[in-house]
Design goal:
Distance between the termini: 19 Å
Structural class: mainly alpha
Largest sheet: none
Radius of gyration: 15 Å
Strand content: under 5%
Helix content: 55-70%
Number of helices: 5
Shape: globular
């Protein structure tokens, strides 16, 4: 799916989940986290073609990646959003929801997504 759609979906979720507490910043944060799994393309200059294909829609689009990434990001967001009294659990839930929506949308095109990575056969 294109990055504009992913950003718009993330912004929508940001507004629905955090709009009252973060205001318009929720749109920006949602859009950022909506395109975050696609930023693995920044590693492309370091990878050959086969590794690019394996990496993209692999670890960053897996349940393991969502869980670990959301937990790690939530630590910093809770500190950043301390004034709004947003806990680590709320911040992590927000990131996980946006990231999960991104992965769900990416499962439908022909390329799919390796949601169960690192299990064999993915």
């Amino acid at each position: 799916m294109d990055w504009i759609t992913q950003a718009a979906l993330g912004a929508l979720i940001g507004e629905l989940m955090m709009g009252r507490r973060l205001g318009n910043r929720a749109l920006a944060w949602g859009a950022f986290f909506g395109i975050l799994p696609e930023l693995d393309v920044l590693l492309y200059p370091l990878l050959d073609t086969a590794r690019r294909l394996a990496w993209h829609r692999g670890p960053s689009h897996s349940l393991v990646g969502i869980a670990l990434g959301s937990w790690a990001i939530a630590q910093g967001l809770a500190k950043l959003w301390q004034r709004e009294k947003i806990s680590k659990l709320e911040a992590g839930g927000f990131v996980a929801t946006v990231w999960s929506a991104h992965v769900l949308v990416d499962c439908f095109p022909v390329g799919g997504a390796a949601v169960l990575w690192p299990l064999p056969g993915q």
